[in-house]
Amino acid sequence: MRLIIVRHGDPNYEIDSLTEKGWREAEFLSVRMEKQLQKEHTYIYTSPLGRAKDTASLTLKKLGMTATEFKWLREFEAPAIDEDTGTYKVCWDLLPARWTSEPAYYDKDQWMNTPFMKKAKADTESAWVYDGLDSLLKKHGYTRENGYYRAEHSNRDTIVLFCHFGVECVMLGHLLGISPVVLWHGTAAAPSSVTTLYTEERREGIASFRMQSFGDQSHLYAADEPASFAARFCETYDNNEERHD
Hints:
- By secondary structure, this protein is of the alpha/beta class.
- It has a single domain, classed as Phosphoglycerate mutase-like (Rossmann fold), CATH 3.40.50.
- Helices cover 34% and strands 23% of the residues.
- The strands form three sheets. It has an eight-stranded mixed beta sheet with strand order 5-4-10-1-11-12-9-8.
- It is globular.
C-alpha cells in the first residue's frame, strides 16, 4: 500500500480557503497527481476544512473522482495557555527553549503527559486521530498490532489524504514511532507538499510503514513556482518581514 499525505496549498485562513498562490500550487499539484495516480486503485480522503478541500478539488476534477471527508483529518486542535507568553499556543508552536528542556517531549508515548499538553488535552485529540487513521487502514486491509500492522489483505492501492501540517505530524508519529513534538518543531511541510509512505511486508502478514519522501515540492519546482513560507518562522531574528510568533 502507498499512503500519500498532502498539505493544503498556501492558505487564506480568514476565509478558510487558498490564496491566489495557493490555487496555483493546487493546480500544479493536480498535474502531478494526475500523472502519478491510477484511478481504479486510488482512494482519496480530505479534511472537512475548506483549504484542504479546495486543494483536493483540482486533483479530484482531473481524475473524475470524489473524496470522503473525515473530521479527524482536520487540523490538530489542542491549544493551551503558554506560560512564556501568557497567550494561547497550539502544540506545534512552542518555543525551542520550552519543549527541548522536557525529555518527555521526545518520547513517543509520554509527549502528551507534560503539563502543557495535559492542559491542551492533547491525549484526547491524538487518540482521536490515531483511532481514525487505524480504522481507515483496517478498512483497506491493514490492522494495527503493537507497533506494526497485520496485513490481512495485502495490496498496492494508494490512499491520499488532503489535510494539514499539524495532523500530518501526528499521523507520521503514530506510523513511525516518533513523538509528533519532534516532527512539529523539527520539520516543516510547506503548503501543497507531498509526503509518501509505503508498506513493507518482509515477513508474510506483517507490515510496517516506511517514509520514502517528506514534504516533496517537485511539482512547484517543475513549474518555477517558489515554495510558500507558511509553516516556517524567521530565519534570522532581525528579519521583521518573517514570522516570529
